[in-house]
Design a protein that fits this description.
By secondary structure, the protein is of the alpha+beta class. It is built from seven helices and six strands, in the order ααααββαβαββαβ. Helix 1 packs antiparallel against helix 4 and helix 4 packs antiparallel against helix 5.
């Protein structure tokens, strides 16, 4: 029972450590609650990773600790049963899961770079409405490139927004919008609803 509880705890803490990237990817949605939770847990990522390692260490101890020798009053001793094959399999499965979960933010960052490079616009002249304006937001607390996709999608779904790009490296969101349909305060609220403080730096 202790062994199973340790495995489950290690997996949950690993997910919490990478919540900003993992939860949107696992759930397949850009929900504000998911991103908000990830942003709230991001500052504690180092501590959560340490706790994950500690829990895995406890799991390995329970699984591979030396068998106890039990002796009765007559002096007869017998070895306790070693860890079962199922227990060892579960341990290694949880270990692989947690390592993969903790490494996912780095994988997501690489994927974001590839996606950004492949989606560069072709050099051509596009018609721009004279009523369209552009605002740049400084978006802080982003610790994972995966978050940029969800923020950009939320902005693009907003009525009056003609384009949105969120850059993880510069921590900037560039939004093209029609002032007659949507304002800067609402755009800022959409970003902050995702769990990331935003401040307009130019328009």
């Amino acid at each position: 029972m202790k062994q199973a509880a340790t495995f489950i705890s290690a997996a949950l803490v690993a997910i919490a450590a990478s919540a900003c990237c993992v939860l949107p990817a696992v759930l397949g949605v850009a929900s504000a609650g998911t991103l908000g939770l990830g942003a709230a847990l991001a500052p504690f990522r180092t501590y959560l990773m340490g706790l994950t390692a500690l829990l895995l260490g406890v799991g390995f101890y329970f699984t591979y600790r030396p068998a106890k020798v039990a002796c009765d009053a007559d002096g007869r001793c017998s070895n306790a049963k070693p860890a079962s094959r199922l227990g060892k399999t579960m341990l290694w499965a949880v270990t692989l899961f947690t390592v993969g979960t903790l490494a996912y933010p780095q994988f997501a960052a690489s994927r974001a770079e590839v996606k950004a490079a492949s989606s560069q616009p072709v050099n051509r002249v596009l018609p721009v409405s004279i009523t369209t304006k552009t605002v740049v937001f400084a978006v802080s607390n982003m610790t994972c490139a995966e978050c940029t996709f969800s923020i950009a999608d939320a902005l693009k779904k907003t009525s009056g927004v003609s384009g949105a790009k969120v850059d993880f490296k510069t921590k900037r969101a560039i939004v093209s919008y029609e002032p007659s349909r949507v304002g800067v305060p609402k755009l800022r609220a959409i970003i902050e609803r995702s769990g990331f403080p935003a401040k307009p730096v130019s328009s």
